[in-house]
TrEMBL record:
Listed InterPro entries: GntR_C, TF_FadR/GntR_C, Tscrpt_reg_HTH_GntR, WH-like_DNA-bd_sf, WH_DNA-bd_sf
Domain of life: Bacteria
Listed CDD domains: WHTH_GntR (cd07377)
Originating species: Sulfitobacter aestuariivivens
Keyword Transcription regulation assigned: yes
Single GO MF annotation: DNA binding
Gene3D superfamilies linked to this entry: GntR ligand-binding domain-like (1.20.120.530), Winged helix-like DNA-binding domain superfamily/Winged helix DNA-binding domain (1.10.10.10)
Record key words, sorted: DNA-binding, Transcription, Transcription regulation
Stated name of the protein: GntR family transcriptional regulator
C-alpha cells in the first residue's frame, strides 16, 4: 500500500472509530463499504482498510453472514473489562509512583482537571480525551509498552459501553483523578493503588446504577 492510500485508510479509521465511540454508530450498525466511502468522501479501499482495523481492535465484528457490524459490549463484558483494568491499573499506579520519572505531564493534567471543576464544564469529548491520556500516562510511567496497549484497548471498550452517558460521574471522577495524581506525585505507592481501585470501583457502580436507573 502506498503512503497516500495508507494515510486515507488511517483517516477513515479514525473518523469511523470516533463515530463508534460517540454513539453516532450504534452497536449492530452494518458497516457498508460504499455507504461509508460516500459519507467520508473517499474510495472504498480506505474504508475497507478502516473496517479491518476496527475489527482488529474489537470495535467491529463479523456477523454470521460475514458482514462487518459495530460490536456490542454487554454488561457482563464491561464488568469483566473493569475487573481486568483494576488488576492492571492498580499495579500500574503503584509502579508509576515508584518510577522516579518526571511527573510534569501528570501535573499538567491535574491543572486541567482543576480547570474543569472551577470553570465551565468541558465538552464530553474533551473530558474523555483527558481521562484517556491520564490513564495511559500512568501506564507509561509504570514502564510497560504492552501495558499501555492493553489498557488503551480496555478503555476504548469501556467508552463504547457508556459513551459519556453517565454525566453524574463527571465531578466525582475529577476528584478521584486528583487524589490519584496526588498520590503518584507524592510517590505513595499504596495510596496510588488504593486511589485507582476506588476510582474503577466507582465507575463500575455508576454503570450498574445507570443500567437500572437510566433516567
Amino acid at each position: 500500500m502506498d503512503e497516500a492510500a495508507q494515510t486515507l485508510g488511517n483517516s477513515a479509521f479514525k473518523r469511523m472509530k470516533a463515530m463508534i465511540l460517540d454513539g453516532t454508530l450504534e452497536p449492530g450498525t452494518l458497516l457498508r463499504e460504499k455507504k461509508f466511502a460516500d459519507r467520508l468522501g473517499v474510495s472504498r479501499t480506505p474504508v475497507r482498510e478502516a473496517i479491518g482495523q476496527l475489527i482488529s481492535e474489537g470495535l467491529a465484528t463479523r456477523s454470521e453472514g460475514g458482514a462487518p457490524v459495530v460490536s456490542r459490549v454487554s454488561l457482563s463484558d464491561i464488568m469483566e473489562i473493569l475487573h481486568v483494568r483494576s488488576l492492571l491499573e492498580c499495579e500500574a499506579a503503584k509502579k508509576a509512583a515508584l518510577s522516579g520519572k518526571s511527573m510534569e505531564l501528570l501535573l499538567e493534567y491535574r491543572a486541567q482537571i482543576v480547570g474543569f471543576l472551577e470553570g465551565p464544564r468541558p465538552e464530553a469529548e474533551v473530558h474523555s480525551a483527558l481521562d484517556s491520556h491520564l490513564h495511559l500516562e500512568i501506564a507509561r510511567l509504570a514502564g510497560s509498552k504492552l501495558l499501555i496497549e492493553i489498557i488503551d484497548g480496555l478503555k476504548v471498550k469501556t467508552r463504547m459501553f457508556d459513551q459519556g452517558s453517565i454525566p453524574d460521574r463527571f465531578i466525582p471522577g475529577c476528584h478521584e483523578h486528583l487524589v490519584l495524581i496526588d498520590a503518584i506525585v507524592a510517590q505513595s505507592a499504596d495510596d496510588a493503588a488504593a486511589a485507582m481501585k476506588t476510582h474503577l470501583l466507582n465507575v463500575r457502580k455508576a454503570i450498574i446504577s445507570h443500567i437500572h436507573h437510566p433516567f
